[in-house]
Design a protein that fits this description.
Layout: H1 3-15, H2 18-25, H3 29-43, E1 48-51, E2 54-57, H4 59-82, E3 90-97, H5 101-115, E4 119-126, H6 128-137, E5 142-146, E6 154-168, H7 176-181, E7 185-188, H8 192-201, E8 210-212, H9 215-225, E9 228-232, E10 243-244, E11 251-260, H10 261-264, H11 270-281
Parallel strand pairs: 3-4, 3-5, 7-8, 7-9
Antiparallel strand pairs: 1-2, 5-11, 6-9, 6-10, 6-11
C-alpha cells in the first residue's frame, strides 16, 4: 500500500493544488509530484488535471477517491489497534446507521464500556451501503443497521421491529391525509424498505417540498418550524408539541446487529450485551 502517495492524493483534493499540498505535508513540491506520478503509474490512470489555478480530479481520480479514503481509514485503525493499552483484551469497531444511534447504538456502546472496560471501542456512522462495505473489508466488526447483506462469514442478530409512525405538530385531529397534503409535510428518508412501502401505500402523493436523510433532523425541523413526518416511534418525544396520528398506516423495518464471526469468537461478552440491547429496544421513546 503506497501510504505516503495516498495521503498526498487526499491532501491535494483537500487543499486544491500540489503546491499547497506540499506546504500542508511539509515536503517539497517535487516530492508531491513524484508521489502522485508514482501512484498514477501504478493505477495506469491520470488522477488530476493540473492547471495554473490548481488541480482538478479526473473521472479516474474521482472514482479512486473513495477507495483511497478507505485505505487511509483502515491504516489509521490498524495503527490505533496496534498501540492499545496492555490491559485491552479485545477490540470492537462498530458501525451504526444514522437513525439507530439514539437509544440503540448509544446503548450498545454504553453497555460494553460499563461492563467490559477492557474492550477497545470505536463507532462509525454510515448509511446501509457504507455499513455493508465496511463489514466486507473489515473496517468495522459489527453494525447496527436495517436490511443488511449477510454472508457466510457474518451473523445477523435481530434487535427490534422498528415502527415508523406519522407524527404531527398540527391540529387536524385523526385525518392523516390532511397532514400529508399540507405544505409542511416533511419526508424523512427512513431507508429502502420504507421508500418501497410508502410509494405503494401513497401512489398519488407528490414529492414533498422538504426531505431529510435522517429522522432526527426531521424531528428537529418539526420542533422548530412545525409540520408532520413519518419517523421511528422510539424517537417520538413525550412532549405536548407533537402527537402521533393513530389512524395513519404504520410501517415496519427490522433493526439488526450484524457481526463478523471471525472477530466475534473473541467476544465472550457478546451474548449478555446483545440481551441488554434487545431488552432496551423494547422500551420507547429511547433514552
Amino acid at each position: 500500500m503506497q501510504l505516503a502517495a495516498i495521503e498526498t492524493f487526499l491532501t491535494i483534493i483537500e487543499v486544491g493544488s500540489l503546491s499547497r499540498a506540499a506546504e500542508r505535508l511539509n515536503v517539497t513540491q517535487s516530492t508531491v509530484n513524484a508521489r502522485l506520478t508514482g501512484l498514477e503509474n501504478t493505477l495506469g490512470q491520470k488522477l488530476f488535471t493540473r492547471r495554473k489555478s490548481g488541480a482538478e480530479l479526473t473521472y479516474a481520480g474521482f472514482s479512486f477517491q473513495r477507495h483511497a479514503q478507505l485505505m487511509s481509514d483502515v491504516w489509521s485503525l490498524a495503527q490505533r489497534e496496534s498501540s492499545l493499552p496492555p490491559d485491552t483484551t479485545s477490540v470492537c469497531n462498530i458501525g451504526c446507521h444514522f437513525d439507530m444511534w439514539t437509544g440503540l447504538g448509544k446503548k450498545l456502546m454504553d453497555s460494553i464500556t460499563t461492563t467490559h472496560p477492557d474492550v477497545a471501542l470505536s463507532a462509525w456512522p454510515g448509511e446501509q451501503r457504507d455499513l455493508d462495505h465496511w463489514l466486507d473489508i473489515g473496517l468495522v466488526d459489527a453494525a447496527i443497521c436495517f436490511s443488511p447483506t449477510v454472508h457466510d462469514t457474518t451473523t445477523a442478530y435481530p434487535i427490534m421491529d422498528d415502527e415508523l409512525v406519522l407524527v404531527s405538530s398540527l391540529s387536524y385531529g385523526e385525518d392523516y391525509v390532511a397532514h400529508m397534503q399540507d405544505v409542511t409535510f416533511v419526508y424523512a428518508d427512513n431507508g429502502e424498505e420504507f421508500r418501497r412501502l410508502y410509494a405503494a401505500t401513497f401512489p398519488d402523493r407528490s414529492n414533498p417540498a422538504i426531505t431529510f436523510g435522517c429522522a432526527e433532523w426531521a424531528l428537529e425541523h418539526i420542533r422548530t418550524i412545525g409540520g408532520a413526518a413519518y419517523m421511528p416511534r422510539r424517537l417520538v418525544p413525550d412532549e405536548a408539541f407533537l402527537s402521533m396520528i393513530e389512524t395513519a398506516p404504520v410501517f415496519h423495518r427490522a433493526a439488526t446487529l450484524v457481526v463478523n464471526d471471525r472477530v466475534a469468537t473473541e467476544w465472550s461478552w457478546l451474548p449478555s450485551i446483545l440481551e441488554t440491547v434487545q431488552s432496551a429496544a423494547r422500551y420507547s421513546p429511547a433514552d
